[in-house]
Amino acid sequence: MKIQLIKFLALVSLVFILITGFVLKKQNFKTRFSSKGIYLGEKVFVEGGTFMMGSPKGEGSGGEHPQHEVTLNDFYIGKYEVTVNDYHSFLMNSRNVDENGYGTDGKEYLDMDDEDCQFEINKYGVVIPKKDMGSQPVVEVTWYGAKAYAEWVGGRLPTEAEWEYAARGGNQSWGYKYSGSNFSGRILCNNGDKLEGVVGAIGTTNELGIFNMSGNAWEWCSDFKSDYSDKAVTNPKGPDAGITRVVRGGGWQCQPEHCRVAYRNYFYPESSSNYTGFRVVFDK
């Protein structure tokens, strides 16, 4: 009788293991659903201050004028752009996104169908980074996907003003044209068809020690597109409504002109590309 009971319990355990394994596979191994994640990247402290945003008259492009005074509070910003490995943690552990790259809000966060997507689904149905892409800045991410990740790790996307202030080197700025340099050869732009990894000190740091704010990948900001005013402002956040969102910094495919710290560009928030990523800001 005891032997039969042991056999029965062993059979029940086996059935439980098989069912559990099937369920985990169907759920893409999301066994630790979490509304909040942990930011694993390095942060750089940016002391608040006042700077001139945009370009002076006679320089730059029209959207950079008029140059105006902006004052910002302290904040922290990611030393690197968010990587594929970072975003993979979000895909696997957040309850707010599924394995197809769509959020619970119905928005596309990541274009999994694009040939340049850095993720793939393995034979077990699990989303994994493609080979040798884990340290690259994640691209093919929409504004919604960037915002969702930033909030998941307890941060947010930078405002356009915060982005430019940090790119210029904050209150330690030397007034460079690009982030950390006046020489386009030191930034990751006009780079053929190559997106560079961010881990391992590739590219130029600026006065604050932040990597690749000029070139490599465009970076989403929180603001809607807007025109500058000549009035001094404090902690501007952009308009409350609009159609396109700000991107800054230029990408690997850009001419150096587009990688200047003052250059402005705008993409539709639902769009994604193989040259657009983001970094995260944290309030002090």
Notes on the structure:
The protein has 284 residues and is α+β, with helices and mostly antiparallel strands. It has a single domain (43-283), classed as paralog of FGE (formylglycine-generating enzyme), CATH 3.90.1580. The chain has 4 helices and 12 strands. A 4-stranded mixed sheet has the order 10-9-7-11. The longest helix has 25 residues, at 2-26. It starts with a helix and ends with a strand.
What descriptors fit this protein?
alpha+beta, 4 helices, paralog of FGE (formylglycine-generating enzyme), 284 residues, three-stranded antiparallel sheet
The radius of gyration computed from the alpha-carbon positions, rounded to a whole number of angstroms, is 22 Å
Helix content: 10-25%
The tally of domains stands at 1
Could you say which structural class the secondary elements and strand pairing correspond to? alpha+beta
CATH topology: paralog of FGE (formylglycine-generating enzyme)
CATH class: Alpha Beta
Secondary-structure blueprint of this entry?
Blueprint (H helix, E strand, L loop, with lengths): L1 H25 L16 E4 L2 E5 L14 E5 L2 E4 L5 H10 L25 E3 L5 E3 L13 H10 L7 H8 L50 E7 L8 E2 L10 E4 L16 E3 L8 E2 L3 E3 L1
Parallel strand pairs: 3-8, 7-11
Antiparallel strand pairs: 1-4, 2-3, 4-12, 5-6, 7-9, 9-10
At a glance:
The chain has 284 residues and is an alpha+beta fold. The chain contains four helices and twelve strands. It has a single domain, classed as paralog of FGE (formylglycine-generating enzyme) (Alpha-Beta Complex).
